[in-house]
Amino acid sequence: MTLIGRHETLRRIEEFEGMPSIPQIIVRVREISENPRSSVADLANIILSDHSLTSKILKIANSAFYAEYASRVSTITQAITLMGFRTVQNVVISLALFDAMGKFSHHKFDFRRFWSHSLSTGVIGKLFASASHYKTPEEAFIAGFMHNIGVAILAVVFPEEYDIVLKKIERGEEQIAAEKSVFAIDHCEVGGWLARRWNLPPLVAKPIMEHHRRGLPSRQKSNNPLVDYIYLSDMAYDVIFQTDEDKRRQLCKSAIDLAGTSEEMVNKIIEIAPGVIQEIANELAISLKAPDANRTEIVSRNIDHESAELVQKLNERNRELSIIKEAGEAIRQACSEEEIFQTTLEEVFRGMGIGRAILLGVDREAKVARGMLGFGVNSQQAVYDMSFPLGEGVIGRTVSDCAIQNILDSTSDLYKDVLLEEERVQIGCCAFATLPMVIGEEVEIVMVINNPDPAEPVDDDRLLSIASLISQASVAIERIRLKKQLLDLQGKQVTTLLNTVFK
Question: Which homologous superfamily is 336-488 in?
C-alpha cells in the first residue's frame, strides 16, 4: 500500500509554493522563434536583455559542444545566424530550466549528483542523435538535461517521503518501483506534468515521460527517436562512470537496434563524452559528481588530437546532411525562381556557417556576370555594383569550365595568372570559392562564398555540400520553367480552339 495516493501527490505538487513558474524568457523566446515574421534582431534583443544568458550562450557556441563553429562566435546575432533559431531556442530552454530549478535543496537528496547526471545524459544524448543523423540533435540535449526533472520535484515537495525512496533504491529496488510504492506515481509522470505546465515542445516532453521505454520490446524503436537516445544515454552514463563491461555490451547491442549506431561509434561516444561533459559543465558553472560514491569528480579522459578532429568532422557532416535535407524541402516548395535563389542563399549562409554568400547572374550577350543577391555583412549593399568579365578570371573560368574554383590565398603568386584585379578588389577576400549553377545545359549563376574569417579557405567537403544544394536549386528552377512552358502551351491551344470555333 502506498504512503501517499496519486491524487494527493499531484495536488500537493500543484499547491507547492516553491514550484517555479515557466521563466518568462522561455515564453518570449518561443513566441519569437515560432513567428515566421521574426528576425534575428528580434531574438537577439530578447536574449541580450539577460546578461547571464547572453554570456552562457556565447560560451556554449564556442565550446566543443558546437565544434562546427567553435571559436568563431563573438555576438548573439552571429550565434543565432550560425546556430539557427531552433538551436538557440533549445539552448535558452535548457539554461532557463537549470536556473529555475537549480535553487532546490534537500538535506539528503544529492542535487550535485542529480545535475551531473542530467547534464551528462543531455550531452551523451546529443552525441547519439548526431551519430544517428537526427535532424536537430540539440533536442536530445534538452530532453536528456530535463529527463529526470520529476525526481527533483518529488524530492523537494516530499523530502521525508523521498528519503524512503532513496533507501529502497540503496537496497536494490528499481527507482520507478520504489517511487510508486510511496507516491503511486513516478518521476516520469511528474516530469510530464511539468512539461505540460511549462508548455514545452512535445518532442521534448515525450522523452521526459517515456525515457524508461516501459511497455516497449527491447529491440523495438520508439515512435519518437529522442526517447531511444535518452534511454541509451542513461545506459551510457553508467558505462562511462562505472566501467561496467556487461552494460557496455548491452549498450552496444541496444544502440544498434534503437539508433542504428555501430559498436565502433558507441565506443567513440564513450571515449569523447567525459571531455565534452566537463567543458560544458565548466561553461554552465555546474560542479560535477560521478555516480560512484568513491569518485567525487568525473574523471576526464584525454582525447587524442586525431580523435578530436574526427569528432568535429563528424559533427560538421551530420549537420550539413540535416541542412541539405531541410533546404531541399524548402527549395522544392518554392513557387518562383526568386524564392529559390533566396532560399538557397540563405541556407548556405546561415546553415553552413559561411561568412558571406553572393549570387552573380551570367549575361552571355554582354559577356559579364553581375551581382544579384547577397547574404552576409555588407554584401547586399555591395552586390549590385559587382560586375565581372566572363572571358577571363576566376568567375570566367567557373562559367567556361563549369567547375568549382577554390582560391586558397588570393595574394599568392600561385593565382596571379588566374585572378583579375577587379575580382581581388570587389570580392575583397584572401580566400574564397566560386560555384557554378547549371540550369538546363548552361551555367546561369555563379555563387561566391567565403568564411567568416576572410583569410580562412573554404573546406572542400563543405564545398561539396553547398554544391549539392545548388544542384537541387537548379532542378527546382528547371521544374518551374517547364511548368510555365506547359501552361503557356495549354493557353495557346485554348486560344486556337476558340478562334476556330468562333471564326
Answer: GAF domain (3.30.450.40)
